[in-house]
Design a protein that fits this description.
This protein is α+β, with helices and mostly antiparallel strands. Among the domains are: 57 residues, no CATH class; 127 residues, Tetrahydropterin Synthase, Chain A; 77 residues, no CATH class. It is built from ten helices and 13 strands. Strands 8, 11, 12 and 13 form a four-stranded antiparallel beta sheet that branches. The chain has a three-stranded antiparallel beta sheet with strand order 5-4-7, with no helix packed on it. It has a two-stranded antiparallel sheet with strand order 1-2. The longest helix is centred in the C-terminal third of the chain and has 70 residues. It starts with 15 loop residues before the first strand and ends in a 20-residue tail after the last helix. InterPro entries: Band7/mec-2_domain, Band_7, Band_7/SPFH_dom_sf, HflK, Membrane_HflK_N. It is found in: Membrane. HflC and HflK could encode or regulate a protease. GO terms for molecular function: peptidase activity.
């Protein structure tokens, strides 16, 4: 006879065992598994045709289970995601956002990484919660931002990296690297330290930011590609580039002195650009005047020599006549501008009053203008 009909078994009524009372239940009792199975069988028999497990009923159950299993392969890929379909754990294809289908589990499974989203990683700074401002504030991380330059100076560099997953590298992203964000951050910091270590501090602080960003991006991409990470570095942005806080005031003084030096050099260059062309122009003018005078003197000398030769030729033909003509021309040139009085009153000149002021009797000529090069000729006859 079953023990449940004996009032607690061979040891008496109640929940007792051979050593006395059994363990007492505390709290709600767990459901009985056999009771649950029995209820499930009853419910299933009610749904099946005929109320019992016939061949047709089993077939319908199997068909329904297969239909549900087949429909479980539908899945949706969101706008920022790509679907990576695995067949028995092997990557077979990548699907785009939208409604897609894969063979039901366990034949195929799908992973949904956010491959179309651009992620941002900050190096040298971090965001922390600020209860006073009811938000988040930026905090510097010196162990990441302090770097040594090529001229043995220390510079504080904060920068961010924008990256995403390559459309054709989702499989590499999922299976080749274990911690993608940590890998990108480590590679970014290493690449920035290498680029900064090859340059001097002055270009980094002034006009070489674009060159530095491009160099870091290229070096990061080469390193990540060598890892087979499937990551695309879109942009590197340098947020802050300053000397360390301990020496920033002195460095600013040096920068101000260098700015003054450049300003003074520019002013001197401007003055030189204004004065030097003026001096060169005046020098060229003097040279041109001297060349003109040279050409004039040579031409006059050649003209006088040609005139002398022509006069000499005429003189050889008629010496007396030429001599007389030359004398007259010379006297005309010498006496043409002087006061003169011609008297033809006899050979002895006794009819002339000895003390007659002849210079006051003759009319005075107006003085020749200063601009004329030859004196006016004339006289009283």
């Amino acid at each position: 006879m079953p023990w449940k009909n004996q009032g607690g078994g061979p040891w008496g009524s109640g929940p007792k065992g051979p050593w006395g009372n059994g363990p007492q239940s505390v709290g709600p009792r767990p459901p009985d598994l056999e009771d649950l199975l029995r209820r499930g069988q009853d419910r299933l028999q009610q749904l099946l045709p005929g109320g019992h497990f016939s061949g047709m009923g089993i077939a319908l159950v199997l068909i329904g289970a297969l239909a549900i299993w087949g429909l479980s392969g539908f899945f949706r890929v969101q706008s920022e995601e790509l679907g990576v379909v695995l067949r028995f754990g092997k990557h077979v294809r990548t699907v785009q956002p939208g409604l897609n289908y894969h063979l039901p589990y366990p034949i195929e499974t799908v992973l949904l990484p956010k491959a179309l989203r651009v992620s941002t990683i900050s190096i040298g700074m971090t965001l922390i919660d600020d209860p006073a401002r009811r938000g988040r504030t930026m905090r510097d991380v010196p162990e990441e931002s302090l770097m040594l330059t090529g001229d043995e100076n220390i510079v504080d560099v904060d920068f961010t990296v924008l990256w995403r997953i390559k459309p054709d590298g989702v499989g590499n992203y999922l299976f080749n690297i274990q911690n993608p964000e940590g890998t990108v951050k480590a590679v970014a910091e290493s690449a920035m330290r290498e680029v900064v270590g090859r340059a001097n501090i002055q270009p980094i602080l002034t006009g070489a930011r674009t060159t530095t960003e491009a160099g870091v991006q290229d070096l990061m991409q080469k390193t990540l590609d060598s890892y087979g990470s499937g990551i695309l570095v879109q942009q590197v942005q340098m947020q802050k580039v300053d000397p360390p806080a301990q020496v920033i005031d002195a460095f600013r003084d040096v920068q101000a002195a260098r700015a003054d030096l450049e300003r003074l050099q520019n002013e001197a260059q401007t003055y030189a650009n204004r004065v030097v062309p003026d001096a060169r122009g005046r020098g060229a003018q003097i040279l041109q005047v001297a060349e003109g005078y040279q050409q004039q003197a040579i031409a006059e000398a050649k003209g006088q020599s040609s005139r002398f030769l022509k006069v000499y030729e005429e003189y050889k033909k008629a010496p007396d006549v030429t001599r007389q003509r030359i004398y007259l021309e010379t006297m005309e040139r010498v006496l043409g501008g002087s006061e003169k009085l011609v008297y033809d009153g006899g050979g002895n000149g006794q009819s002339i009053v000895p003390y007659l002021p002849l210079s006051e009797l003759t009319p005075r000529r107006p003085q020749a203008p200063a601009t004329t090069g030859q004196p006016q000729q004339g006289g009283t006859r």
